[in-house]
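Dear support,

Our group has been running a series of protein-ligand predictions, and this particular one with S-adenosylmethionine is the one our PI (initials K.S.) wants archived with full inputs and outputs. We had some confusion internally about which version of the output was final, so please treat the block below as the authoritative record. The input we submitted was:
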Amino acid sequence: MTLLTAKQLNSEELEIRHDWTIDEIRNLLEMPLIDLLWHAQLVHRRANPGYKVQLASLLSVKTGGCEEDCAYCPQSIRNSSEVTGQPDLDVQPVLERAKIAKEAGADRFCMGWAWREIRDGSPFEAMIQMVQGVRSLGLEACVTAGMLTDQQAKRLAEAGLTSYNHNLDTSPEHYGEIISTRTYQERLETLQRVRAAGISLCCGGIIGMGESITDRASLLRVLATLDPHPESVPINALVAIEGTPLENLSSVDPLEMVRMVATARILMPRSRVRLSAGREQLTKEAQILCLQAGADSIFYGDTLLTTTNPSVLADRELLSEAGVQINSDFRNA
Ligand code: SAM
Ligand code: DTB
Ligand code: SF4
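Confirmed final output from the archive:
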């Protein structure tokens, strides 16, 4: 398969396509790894000269007690994990955490609410103040809080929200095995609302939930046929959490993550591809392969939402050993 024309190989030009087919994507996912990496590198080096990696810190503002039935999630009341409903964090402590994240070198501060959809009233007013506060620290702000209305999206945009995270999680075909309380179509409508309000889209999925390679290709097809592509695409490996229906699934082969990242990079050259949950299951070498394959963002900080993430120190070492540039260093340079 020709991915780059001779003209593109010799120029700065990168073709951005929105008409990828499942067969084309499957061919990429199953290509000899060494060739896939080469193609991904060609695209990535052109799209991201200087090889900058964005550091995004994550904080759970509203933890647990969620009424949705997402099979992977410890925060669902339908799952018997140890995570229970916690009181929402207040605005000031959240902004303190954002400040600490900035001092540690983060570029983006992401805040999560274990909600089916954003609720109006004081929790939403607090969310707006958090977004304004994070922006005034000079950080990008991202929120993930489930579905939203046009009006809520507009208010978040006015508050300066950089990006809204809402994942498709898996393929339309596999989706029914994972979630029954909200449809794929509802997810797509949420994405449209975010876009219509002028907020950047952060949208990706999870591998390792019993899906086939065709499912992975199908998820990537939905993402890569969005026009424009999501500005960031988180690729998560399932963190199999005790008490969830997926607790007994074995970890994905690290090279499957490499393949997923590389393929996402080729399909969506200018999107940030974020190596997200599941990094603790990856060795340093596997993470460096993911960076080489085109991952240009990681979650940075000792915790994700309810689970742990590699330490800040370990990540600083990793990035320095890989020899990539951190966005914040670049900004301060
Ligand atoms: N409640 C909101 C929602 O579902 O849109 C926002 C928070 S939700 C926890 C954000 C995303 O985290 C999910 O869509 C899923 O992709 C990811 N996630 C949650 N639990 C995970 C797990 N155990 N392993 C990997 N990814 C996970
Ligand atoms: C995303 O795609 N992954 C992050 C973020 N977006 C919100 C969440 C990962 C959660 C992993 C399980 C946990 O810590 O609860
Ligand atoms: Fe709730 Fe989000 Fe977890 Fe689903 S992923 S159960 S919507 S917190």
